[in-house]
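User: Teach me something about this protein's shape.
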Amino acid sequence: MTVPNNQAPPPAYSAPAPGKDGMPPPGSLPPPQAPMIVVAEGTSMTAAERGELYRSELYGRCAAGVHEPSTKFGPCGIITAIVCFPIGLLCLLVDNERRCSVCGVKLD
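Assistant: First, the predicted structure itself:
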């Protein structure tokens, strides 16, 4: 590779040394993240296009397993918790449902 006189060569890349089992040492890799959609700068988008892009990113996060959980309590559990106060709280804890607030899938 020839380098013009007015430019310095690029710095050498040094990868982290592998561990005993050939894998990189812990902490050297970034945590996995959901894929992000990149839009070129300077392009104008309508509000509907921006909304569609935002929604597709949220659904992409859900498809990768990163949900936004929300807990809802059932009416039977709420009424029992009020009427039978100390013991009724156990019914409230049993009568709940966790769902993703984005895609609506039931979480366990």
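Now, about its shape. The chain is about 35% helix and 10% strand. The mean pLDDT is 74. If you'd like, I can walk through any region in more detail.
User: That's plenty for now, thanks!
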